[in-house]
Specification:
83 residues, alpha+beta
């Protein structure tokens, strides 16, 4: 899949993920992070969307993004020991 028919364009599937989506201006690591290789980083995208990535992924290619309401529902569920 390409964005246009010119031969100079790079197929979308060949782009680095960081070039395909915005990146947070900064990432935060939980204060609960330990040595068990189960660490996550959190960042805010565009003032609303939330991003999460694995700190042990050296290439940082996998980033999950969530709309603000979904992220808040997740935080509420964690705080209320629902999940």
């Amino acid at each position: 899949m390409t964005t246009a028919s010119t031969s100079e364009e790079t197929p979308v599937t060949d782009l680095e993920p960081s070039r395909c989506r915005p990146q947070p201006s900064s990432w935060r690591t939980s204060t609960y992070t330990g040595r068990d290789n189960n660490c996550l980083e959190h960042g805010v995208l565009n003032g609303a969307e939330q991003a999460v990535r694995d700190t042990m992924d050296p290439a940082r290619k996998t980033t999950l993004t969530f709309p603000a309401p979904a992220w808040q529902a997740f935080l509420n569920a964690v705080a209320g020991a629902v999940i």
